[in-house]
Design goal:
By secondary structure, the protein is α+β, with helices and mostly antiparallel strands. It has 8 helices and 24 strands.
Length: 357
Amino acid sequence: MALLTKKSLVNVAIGAALFTSAVSVVQACSRLIWDTENHGVFVSRTMDWMVETHPTIDVRAKGISYRGAESGEKVMMWTSKYASILTTFYGKAGIDGFNEAGLAANALYLGEESSGKYNADKVQLENSRVIPYFLDNFSTVKEALAGIEDIQIQLFSHAGSKLKGHYSLQDASGDSAILEFINGTWKIYHGQQYDVLTNSPEFSEHLNNWDAKKPTQQSQYASDYPLDGNVGPAERFVWNKYMLAQLQEPSSIINGLAKLDSSTYKVPLDAANRLVDGKMTGYATQYTLTYNLEQKELNMRYQYGDVYTQFKVDFNKLNDGKNYSLKADEQTNVGDMTSQFKQQNGVMAQYRINSIE
């Protein structure tokens, strides 16, 4: 029988808290987009979680067919039209990425997501595969929104419990959308104004909260403005909207990446990622992704456990009809890691229904 050390007992407690049904406890991730006048659309998102998720970055060729769920009378099947780069989660899900056409998609935790009663008339798609489905099939936000009308979302499980989320889309034109699947129904917010996403509660409540707290005139964007600043999703939403509104046209793509990354709220490692009275109070930022939809270089800053590093990947150089993968949580990932990707199948290969010719 293995001995349980103090560290392992803490890990067990954290694991138990991971899937708590108390929505107010589960707080993870921020996503921002910035449509600039001369340098295209920038995207930044944090991945906030309480344990290592062992992400990989997978470059996926087009022309591969996938199964969208493990059960259901009508299961989504598709063959990818576009190559893409995908950041993965727990070896089961794709949570962020962009494709060669300039569509980007992000998944963030939302405790309110629910499949509702099973509908045999709907096509079934597990939420672990929603992001790859978008990236594989669509080039614009409008196309993607038209492609979900008859879809019912299933929740995927990890360690015996179901994980939930909501989704953001953005494309190279600056178009944006937020999608939530609650009680079997899609709630969609479509427009460039939807440039920030965090977590629970539902998106409509964040919009109302921002309307109540945002500055009413430009002069109020100043250091003495009373701004929400704690790590909860409601506070992060207001904070991100406030900072994003102050960004000025970048002088270059690199300058734009730096500006948006600096504006994206990072939860300090020890400020939230701990148990209080047996409950997780919040999730610390494990990594940040930042990219430009014209340049198509993915930048990751990983800062968790004993890893603290920053690197980039040039998707254009790896988009050659082959599949590549890189473990994203390695300290040796520094600088330009494009040449260090290995030619191999990634996480989505487990859902394939054919092979590359």
